Structure formats: structure tokens, C-alpha cells
Fold these 2 entries.
Entry 1:
Amino acid sequence: MIHESQLPRSCDRCHSLKERCRRANSINSCERCTRLRLTCTSNRPFKRPGRRPQPYHIQGARRQRGSESLDPAVDISEDRKGDILAIFNIPEKLSEEEAWLVHRTLANNSFIEQFLLGPSFCNAHRKSLFSQLCKAPALLQDAYVACVLSVPYPGEDPSGTLTEQRLDSSYRRASAALAKLRTLKVENASDVSSCLALGGSILTFVLRFGGKDSLAICSRVLGLIRPVYESHTNKLPDADLGFLACVVMCETTECLLQTELPTLRFRPQPLESSEYVDRYVGLCGTLLPHLQELCHLSFAMFHSTQAKEEVMGELQKLKTTIEAWRPIVPPNFTESYTTSEVTNILCQTHVMQLAALLILHRMQHPFGTEQIAALSMAHTILRQLEVAKMVAGRTPRCIDFALMAACLEVSDGRERSDQLRSASSIAVYSPRFIQRSETFISAVWEARSLKQSPIYWYHLGLVTKHVNVAELSAI
């Protein structure tokens, strides 16, 4: 039975016009409907009296202003606290609030999807993260919590500023995770899995704040697993391959930019494993060894560890190999993934191949010379990213290295900035990474403008090592 207080006090027409509804009593037609000779009705649905409940994220924001707890926005019911701790076998060091935060954030596709090629990879990635946490909670809990605390929670503004308390807590957790990485020992395949999960989580945190120390972390992780990895004849499980490809790709990118050597040689999946598509590098797994070879040749040219003629010959052979490279496409590729994901993966293979050829070009010809070929490759990369974004309806993932290589050829500073911010998939997650990229590219262009000495690709390591621009241009 409907209470009298729930009856509409205005007719439907007055309510829609947001005007006062005047009538002699609740039975007669109102003055407006009578004057216009319209039927006066009150047929809109009844609503419960009282104030509507506020959205969850607003409730959390209000609680946060008046509380000093770790995460006042998290509402943990008593019947869930014990369940979460039991599910993940979390030791007492991880608070109930933190355990629930890890669960809620990793269960949120919008967070995980920032780092993967598409939603189809989210469940497998989430399962891998949770299984590793259950297997080695004491090792991974600090790294996981550091990542969760360093980003806005689900429902919060992605570009919002974190409180000092949140930042302090995330840094303390990250420091604890790094301490565990320094003392970690890897003796078997199970240790390899845990080490890769730890390294990948720390990298996620470091990327959030610009990625400056990425190379040191990658080198440490890959150095720890190298003895077992190189002696392990069987291929790693797909869950571990995802973390491995991520760390290897990150290290290879930094080695190319800093003129350093990779820690280990990546072994792509065997040819018979044609159905495997990596959640980070997609179909580019067989291209990674060629990118690592570029690192070795760049290092050799900068440090003159080989005769120049010998290195140039190897560069030409590698160029032929990369030009002939084609990804291994699974038989049911287009049926297994969404149109957006297929577009992203195919775009990634094309722009990464072009980026490798562009680097080869700049190892043979200094910046500012042989411009027609260089600009053609750079503009093709940028155009491919633009088309993929239009077709897929979202920014392509895992293509930032190719984007940076192309932007090094763009002379206009504003255009470079626009391209980095619009085409990068991690621009929202890590504005500091974009700022770091802009600073790096601007420093290269500043050195080029001095025109004192030709600058090849293998000289870029001096920029990342904060060498004075005048010194770089006087090589």
C-alpha cells in the first residue's frame, strides 16, 4: 500500500516543466491544465521518499576528508574481511584494508587493461597475478600494494592528485619490495615465476613516476633468472612468458635509448606454438631478438669494440633480416580477439618493425641526413597509430617505443608533444613518463641544433646520462 506522502504532489506536465502545480484539491485538474484544456494526469512512477543514497566514490571521498586511515574510501563489510585474507593467504603484515584494495583494483579491468593489448587478456593476467600472490605472498605483497596505492582507486578521477599519506605509503611499500628484490635468490623455475612477478610489479610502480630507474630494475630481474632461464630447456608457461616479455621489452627499449647491453638473450616461443599471442608484445616475440641485436651493435659502434666495417656489415645483414621479418599469425586470430584487439596487435607489429628499421637507419646515417627515408618511416608510424586509434576507438597499447623513435624525427616541438600525449597509451597512467620522453627528445634536438658534430643513434645514451648538450654535440 502506498503511503499518502508518496503520492505525486504535482501533475506530470507541471513536473516536466518544473513549475508549481496549483489545484484546489488533489482530485481536481490543476490550474495550468484547466487553462490549456488538457487532461491533468499524475502517472509517473512513484519514488521512495527521502534523500537518495550518494554514489560510492562520493561517500568515500567524504570519509577520506575526515579520517586518517589508509583508505577511508574502502568499505569492508565484516563478512568479507576474513574471506579476503583467507583467499590470498595474506600474512598479518598486510592489513585487511590493503588486502581488499589489492583485490578490488586487480579485479578492475580498467586498471589492468592499461598495460595489456586488450580486454581478452585481462582474465589470464589477473589469474597470473593472483596465483603468484597466493604462492609467494610475503615476497609480492609490498610490490602489489605499492602499485595499488600509487594510482587513483576505481571511481576516483584518473588524473587526480594523490594525498601525501597515500604517496608516502606507496613509496614505503616500494622500498620494501626493492629490498626483497636485492636479496632474492632464484634457484628453480618456480623462483623464476615469482621473480618476474615481483619485477613486473615494481616496474609498474616505477613507470607511474616516470620510469627513470627501469633499466636497473630490469637488469636485476633478468640477471637473477638468467642462470635458470638459460639452462631450462623446456619453454616457460604462458603466464610466466607474459611477465618475461614485458621485462625484456622494457630493458631492450632502455638499452637502445641508453646504449647499453641486454642482460640475457630472449628465446621466443617455438614455431609450433603458433597460437600464442603475448599480452604485452602481441606477435612481436620473434622480433625481440632482432631488437636485442640492435642493442649489441649500437654498443659496439659507440665503444668501438669491433671494427667499423665489420659492424656496418652486420648492420646491413640485420636490416635485411628485419625487412623480411613477418609475425606468426595464429590460425583463428581474427575469431579469437575483438576487432579493436586485432587492430592494435597488427598495428603494433608494423610500427615496431618500422621503428627497428628507423633505428638501423640512424645507426648508419646521423640525424639530419638522409631525411627522406627517415621521415617516411616516422610519418608512417605516426599515421599507423592514428588510423589504429580511429578504427579501434581507443589508443593502441604497448607501442610507446615506436612512438618515441618516430617523434625523434619530428622537428616541431608542439607537434612532438601532441603526438606523445595523444598517441601514447600510458599518458593518463603516467604523465611523468610523457614529460621524461619530451625532455629527452628536446635535448636531442637541442644538441642537433648546435651542428658541431654528427649525432648517430648510438650517441643518444649520453642524453639519458645527463651529459651536457654542448658535450654531446662535440662528440
Entry 2:
Amino acid sequence: MSLSQTILIIDDSRFVRAFLLEQLSRIENIRVLEAEDGIKGLDILAREKVDLIITDMLMPKLSGIELIKRLRGDQKHEHIPVIILTTRKELQDKVAVLSTGASDYLEKPIAPAELIARVNSVLKVKSLQDELKERTRSLEKANKELESVLTNMANGVIMTDDQGTIVINRPAKKLLGLTVEMGSLDRGFLKSRLGINPAEVLLENLLENNKEEVLEREVPISGRIYRVVISAVRDESKALVGTVLIFIDITQEKELEELKADFTTMIVHDLKSPMTVVKGGAEILLGGMIGEVTEKQKAILSDIREASNRVIALIDDFLDLSRLGSQQIKRDFHTTDVSQLILRTFMEIRVLIQKKNLILTHQIEEGLPLVLAEAKNLERVLVNLLNNAIKFTPEEGHIEVQARLTSQDFGARDPGKRFVQIDVSDTGPGIDPEEKELLFEKYRQTKTGKSSGYKGTGLGLAICKLIVEAHGGKIWVDSHPGRGSTFSFTVPVAERKGGI
């Protein structure tokens, strides 16, 4: 026994007390107190915490039986185990002793080995009972705290266990139109009240399919929009034992997103129209359609055209970023052949490759499966990455595109889902390690990019990240200064034929 425990001996015979004290001293971590009668024993109990009482059955002033009756009537001491010492050997006498509330008994004369065995047994049971009481108290405290938190939360919360019992807090009750007080509900009752409620469907899917640890869905309820976050609750063996649903009202957030998107579209349109006119005018003048221009004028007009192109590209990036961020672009995913997409992209950039006399190669794994994607957006990601590689790769450098199947889980919600990984590698100057983490943020440019003289919006990689993540994939970079860079992204394999 690791913790010290206290035994109180009560016997009117000092010889018996001395014998018991000698024998009990052999048990580790035991403190022994003694009293010569029941009254003095009660005095000790008033001052000391006692884990076990060993008392004689027949004593003056207060017998062992009377002592037990007093203990069992006292809330503070009613759980202390008692071993009765008796000279009676008849079965009915032993039954009578135990019926008084004694935990065990010992016959006199006392056998030392039996004494030690019975004391150890009773103390072990006492330790387990104390541990159970402490855990019960802790659990009751935690339940009260949880109930208080749930009751006072602004968001609706629903919890369910594997038996189908549902606990619902006040905001969720109000949201779903339930009149019961907070507490347990049968899931069948909840379903009968709500019918085929979107949140209930998500809950059933989570319990039955056991696929998602966390689900997030936008659900319309009573004219408002809620983000429903559904989390799985698992036991130590990872078995699903319940779920937690949190309802977050995002109606105002969605309205603001729509206003922001509409405002951005309006501003972009108002900016793009005059810039298109400026660009068109410069091209007309450069083409000599309204008269000859001098070389100096051509240089100025070329600068105007290039500046117009940069502004228009910036406006287009702003518009795309706004649409992707607010999920306005329709995710029209279909089965897509990555091999064909890479070859089409190569044709699109071949002029830029030839201008810098670069070597462009590809390695496409044989039998590569189709992916589930929106082809135009996926092609844009590849074009952006290749354009960056062309910008920063010196003349006669090498750019390579690889595509292969991977079974790694790059944070996808479905474990074991297959992906096609596409890598774009170059022999450029590379990227400093501290800049890699910030590379996919909006308006970020590397020190290399700034010092090279290339002018960009700092939005290209941010747009790539949004597109890839909208497809359920991931994008990252592996780069070291002086050793080039490899930008990689993944797209989920189309496990079923046709689009979704």
C-alpha cells in the first residue's frame, strides 16, 4: 500500500492490544492507534481519520456491537470498516456479528497470518471504495460544470451517446423549437419532432458511417444560416461513443460576405473598363492604325500597354481572390485527365520557355488515374506555378513537371483517400526557409522576387492555395537557397465515374 493508513484497536485487554500492535507493525505504511474501551475509541475518532477499526465484541462501558451501531448512525464515520474480535465459534453467532454491520470477524485466539490477511483484504476494499467515491465526486463536479457551461453558452449544443440519448442545451432547444427543459431526450423523439432536419441527417451520417472526426456544414434553420460543427467523441480504444454538435449563427457573416463580394465586383468592373480602353488605345497607336509613331513614342506606348496589362492582371487577381474566398465560383468538378492537362499547359507556355532557352520536361506515372477537379481552375494553378518557375529560372535552366499517385493523407477528412501529386521543380535561386511559411499568404513576395525586378501582385500563390484547397488537396513548397524550388500540390482521385 503506497499511502499511509490508520488502524484503531479497541480492546479492554492490554495484552490483546499489545499482540495486535506487534503483528500490525509488520504491514508497511500502517499507523496504529489504540483505546481500552469504546468510549475512548469514539474520542479518538473525533480527532483522527481512521481507515479500519479492530474492536473486541464484549467490553465494559460500550460493547463492540454498540460501537458499530453508533458508527453506522454517524454520517462522518458510517463507512469505516470494522473487524470484530470474538470468542464465539457458532455459525449463528458469526452471522449475528456480520448482521450488525461489521465488515469481518476474527476468532480468539487470533492466528497472526489470518489477522494480516484479513486486515490487508479489508484495507484494500476500503482503498477501492475511497477511490470510487473520489472519482464519483469528481464526475459529479465535472457534470455540474459542464451543465453550467452548456446552459450559459450562446450557441446551441447537442450531445449524443452511442445509445442514441441526446442532451440538448437551452439555445439549441429554442433554435429547434423544443419545449422540454435541458436534459436527455430520445433521439427518436427528436427526429419525430424535426422530421428530416439537415443537422439530424449529419448526425446520423456520423454515427452510422464513422468517417469524419469533425464535420462542418452550413444549414438553414428558421430563415437563418447556421454553421453546424459536428465532432466525434471516442473512447480510449478509439471507438465512437458519441458526438457533439455546435450551432453557430453565421447569417450576418454570410450577408456581409455577399455585400463585400458585390462591392468588390462593382469596384473591379469600374476600374477594369477604363484600363481596357487605355490598353486598347495604346495598341491601336502602336499598330499605326491612325498614323505613324516615332520610336520614342513607341517606347512610351509600350510602357503604357505593359502597365495596363499589369493593372488588369491585378484587377483580375482581386476579383478571383474575392470569388474564391466567398466560394462564389461554382465547384463544377468532373473527372479530369492530369496527363492531358499538363500537355495543354506546356503548349500554352512554350513561347516563354523558348524566349529564355529553358529546358522543360515532364515525368508522368504510367496508368495515372483520373482526378476529380474543375479543369480550368486546376490548369490555372499549374500555369501560375510554371510562370513563377520561368520567371526565376536563369537562361538555359531546367524546369520539370512530375505527376504520380500517392496514398499519403495530406490532412484530408477521409483517411486513406488517394491523391495525384503534381510537382513543379526548377533550378532557380531557391527560397529562404523563413519565407516558405508566408509564401501562400496574400500580397507576399520573396526577397528574391523583389530583388530580381519582377513585378507581381503577390496574389498568384494565394489564389493557387484557395483553388487547391477547394478541391480537397494541399499545396506546399520544398526549397533551399541556391538549389532551386519544388512546388507541389495534390488533387483527389476520382474514385467514381462521372462528375459530382
